[in-house]
Amino acid sequence: MKLENYEVHLPNYSIGDKIYDKIGPVCESYGKKVLIIGGRRALKAAEDKIRAYVAKTNLEIIGTKLYGTDCTYAAVEKLRELPEYEEADMVFGVGGGKALDTVKCLCITDDKPVFAFPTIASNCAACTSVSIMYNEDGTFLKPNFFVRPVMHSFIDTEIIAKAPSQYMWAGIGDTYAKYYEATISSQDERLEHFTSLGVATSHMCRDPLLMYGAKALADHKKGLCTYEVEQVVLAIVVTTGIASIFLTKDFTPDYNSGLAHAVFYALTSYPVIEEKHLHGEVVGFGVLLLLLVDGQMDEFEKIYQLNKDLKLPVSLEDIEITEEQWKESLTRIPDMSDIRHYPYKVTPEMLERAMEILRKRNRS
């Protein structure tokens, strides 16, 4: 069967410690007036540097606004009503995943040029064409897909190296998940060209983390931007974004997620997850269960050891989930949309068996 027509928009990005000097050459063709929208801590970390480089261009910053606290449709509508947003020719989104996803949902929907300035390396929001939307109470709502990502992403390694290291720590867990979820959800299928590219690219979501993850995190804790830090930042922010774009098309099965994310989103029902734990941290724990359910014992040992080395979670206690809450989740996880397209039906019994193996591994 011939596939219907489709288009692919890949992310453009610049990376380095003085990369904001590319703001003028990249952005000036889109207009003059710039509105900056970001998170409170992100703006404190990056706004002065952005303004210093914008001052050397023909651009004019007409305002700075906070995005809100969660990526919700209500937050998007509140920003849309701002007179500065109406006046702006383009928007600079500054921050982590929720800030960038909010700005993307606002601007890409309105076809207004938007540029990403990630300040932490915890996820691929700066380079992917999806926003993860939440309910007003902080629980997961749904992914909102777009035809394209931001116009350009400016990845300043100096700012990211000075950010709290727990964001990269969690980002590592979210990133290696992409490889395992993509390869499992696509196994034994005849794939379209773009899906094959996504699965092939996903190898680069795992390999640099196994090679450089421990050294990168140690360097990041010292505020250094070494080769290892840069390789891990690129894997988290760029490679995962590219893989996600190739793995997600609205007329094909979704190969972009899997059991590790299903575990995370099911556990967001408990406030402790959103209040005290990071997305990638919990996803990294979910990967252990994914590998045990899939019977990949060698890969399980690699990730178990990496998690131990990085102090990523290896038990329910590490993410403050009780046995009773886990039992409740066993019936929710199999119904999560993340495993709607999976090579087999995930059952509560599979999950409980995987957890029992994990408990034995921890005791040993």
TrEMBL record:
Keywords: Metal-binding, Oxidoreductase. Residues 12-138 form the Alcohol dehydrogenase iron-type/glycerol dehydrogenase GldA domain. InterPro entries: ADH_Fe/GldA, Glycerol_DH. SUPFAM superfamilies: Dehydroquinate synthase-like (SSF56796). It holds the Pfam family Fe-ADH. CDD domains: GlyDH-like. Gene3D superfamilies: 3.40.50.1970, Dehydroquinate synthase-like - alpha domain (1.20.1090.10). It comes from the Bacteria. PANTHER family: GLYCEROL DEHYDROGENASE, HYDROXYCARBOXYLATE DEHYDROGENASE A. This is Iron-containing alcohol dehydrogenase family protein.
